[in-house]
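[Q] Does anyone have a clean structure-token version of this?
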Amino acid sequence: MRVRTRTFPRSLPALLAPGVAALLIASGAVGARAQQSPITVKSCTILAYSASSPHEFFYLQSGPPSQSNRSYTDGLKISYVNVTTKVISRVGFRVTYRGKSERVIDTGTISPGVTITKTLGDFSGQPYLGSQPDVCAPVGVRYQDGTVWRAASTPAP
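[A] Here you go.
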């Protein structure tokens, strides 16, 4: 008995790759990452305080007392707007200030078209070197219906 085997040319995977990619995009598996950000950041400011007595942060901080007559960072004030037609329940931002990167998360009911302004306690205790962060960008959104959006450069959890 003779067994016949079929061999495919080595270029077959290269021929199939565009078709597979098209199917993934059509199904939404890849296309969801390429969408425009659902959040527009209007302003993002690092807050400061000058130490005149220990622990003048707006919240209790552990560690040694701060030195007097120096300026330190004391949180982040961010203003943003939901530019979609869906209600958002959670927004994640990446904020980088003088080489230190933090993930800042805001939760609540974030309705379409409404400007949200929050003061958050991240970036506290560093030397204050100006109010503008190097990066302040949305990296993830959870909509109230359970769907999510992630920035293209953000890895999945």
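[Q] Thanks! Anything notable?
[A] The radius of gyration is 24 Å.
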